[in-house]
Amino acid sequence: MSALRKLSALCLFGLAFSAPVMAQPIQPFTTAALKAAQSAGKSILVDAYAPWCPTCRKQAPTIEAMAKNPAFEKLLILRLDYDNQDAEKRALGIATQSTLIAFDGSKETGRLVGVTDPAQIESLAKSAMP
């Protein structure tokens, strides 16, 4: 291996470990993912989202920012498709889009409906975190 290749490999290796820690990306909601995360005692935020909903669109930047924020690296964000996951909505008691539910494992720690204030959304998410 040439010296240039070794240096390049070393630089890439260093970059991999110097990258900022990020929270997990927003994941599609499935009952299996929720149950597995609850069984593992994880911090979870369920986002009942509809693309046509103006409130959901106002909540989205805050939720997306949390997904990139190291302070929320242990928070699993599951985005429920409000228009197509009726059974899942019923199971969670979701009556309207723009509902956010926080869980610490299987314990629900809070719920917001129609709230777009970033501080309130972050506070809800933090309620799920030990």
Please outline the helices and strands.
Elements (H helix, E strand, L loop, with lengths): L2 H16 L8 E2 L2 H9 L3 E7 L4 H15 L6 E7 L4 H7 L6 E6 L2 E7 L4 H10 L3
Shape: globular
Discrete helix count:
5
State the CATH superfamily name: Glutaredoxin
Give the mean pLDDT: 88
| CATH C-level category | Alpha Beta
- Numbering strands along the chain, what is their spatial order in the largest sheet? 1-3-2-4-5
Signal peptide: 1-23
Pfam families: Thioredoxin
InterPro entries: Thioredoxin-like_sf, Thioredoxin_domain
Domain Thioredoxin: 20-130
Task: Write a structural description.
- It is a single chain.
- The chain is α/β, with parallel strands linked by helices and 130 residues long.
- It contains five helices and five strands.
- The protein has helices spanning 3-18, 31-39, 54-68, 86-92, 118-127; strands at 27-28, 43-49, 75-81, 99-104, 107-113.
- The model is unreliable at 4-21 (pLDDT under 50).
- InterPro entries: Thioredoxin-like_sf (IPR036249), Thioredoxin_domain (IPR013766).
- Residues 1-23 form the signal peptide.
- Residues 20-130 form the Thioredoxin domain.
- Keywords: Signal.
Outline of the structure:
The chain has 130 residues and is of the alpha/beta class.
Notable features of this structure?
Glutaredoxin, alpha/beta, 130 residues, 5 helices, 22% strand, single chain
